[in-house]
Amino acid sequence: MIFYFSGTGNSMYVAQKIALGIEDNFISISDCVKKQAYTFTVKDNECIGFVFPTYFLGVPSIVIDFIEKLTLNNYKNQYTFSIITCGQDYGNLFTQFEKLLSLKEITLNGASNVIYPDNYILMFNLLPSKEKHKKMFTKADNHINSLINQIKNKNLPFVRSTAWKYLKTRLMYPMYKYGRKTKHFYTTDACNGCKLCQKICPANIIVMADHKPTWQKDRCIQCLACLHRCPQKAIQHKKRTEKRDRYVNPNSMNRM
Ligand SMILES: Cc1cc2nc3c(=O)[nH]c(=O)nc-3n(C[C@H](O)[C@H](O)[C@H](O)COP(=O)(O)O)c2cc1C
After folding, report:
1. Which of 11, 45, 147, 219 could form a disulfide with 6 if both were Cys (CB 3.0 to 4.6 A apart)?
2. Tally of domains in the chain
């Protein structure tokens, strides 16, 4: 049973590939949140996995909300792992996530990260050039294959926290926690009112008004699915994103 969250497809692809590799099913956290489905029954020999992106060296808000409400019936210390995707660095994320799970009396047994193009383009453009993507995908695929073997053998290493990692997340994560304002999102005249953004928003906060999206809450998950996946490149954030490329993992299924 692999739970995943993904904005632009990296984590979805990883969850899907691992699920195939260990012959398990994968479950979208955003679908669960939309359906208010938080109770699951784990089989005796089943692994429990959590796959999601790194946000400001920490855990995305939707994953926190999901875990807080999660009930796992028949949980008897089945092997539990987390694979996160990131552009570069994840700081103290695993310790944050381990603590979150421990509040539900779930033990995190192993964790690792897979490097993918960084989809954060709001403040800086961290997206690597398209030429670099192919190399990154090949490297990531090889890494995921070795992770599948480690998960099957239940010996995924757990990267322990250090004071430096702790400090980095401590400094960066508040920017995510308090800064995910939606007021800076807007659409240009290129918007044709196709409603894709409304359909894919995992937080369900986009409402169409006058055939244009409006963001209904003060804060969002900031997964950037709306901005990256707009077919018209019509969704922008402040003035910075107009000239920047968009990104969707080309290998992910079209359902996030
Ligand atoms: C709001 C936000 C914050 C991010 N913060 C980090 C970060 O701290 N470190 C990092 O390496 N990548 C960071 N990224 C990049 C994503 O973690 C990375 O691109 C991830 O693979 C995206 O996964 P997805 O395609 O499943 O949404 C951030 C992306 C977003 C949207």
Report:
1. 11
2. 2
Per-residue pLDDT tens for 124-180?
Answer: 888 888 889 999 999 999 999 999 999 999 999 888 789 999 999 999 999 999 999
Q: Are 96 and 59 in contact (CB under 8 A)?
A: yes
What is the pTM (predicted TM-score) of this model? 0.97
**Residues 150 and 207 reside in one and the same domain:** no
To test the pocket of ligand 1, the residue of 16, 119, 254 to mutate (highest count of ligand atoms within 8 Å of its CB) is 119
Q: Tell me, yes or no, whether 249 lies in a domain.
A: no
Ligand 1 center from residue 90 Cα (angstroms): 9
Strands (E), the chain: 2-4, 26-28, 39-41, 48-53, 71-73, 80-86, 110-115, 185-187, 206-209, 212-215, 235-237
State the pLDDT at residue 124: 85
Give pLDDT, residue 130.
86
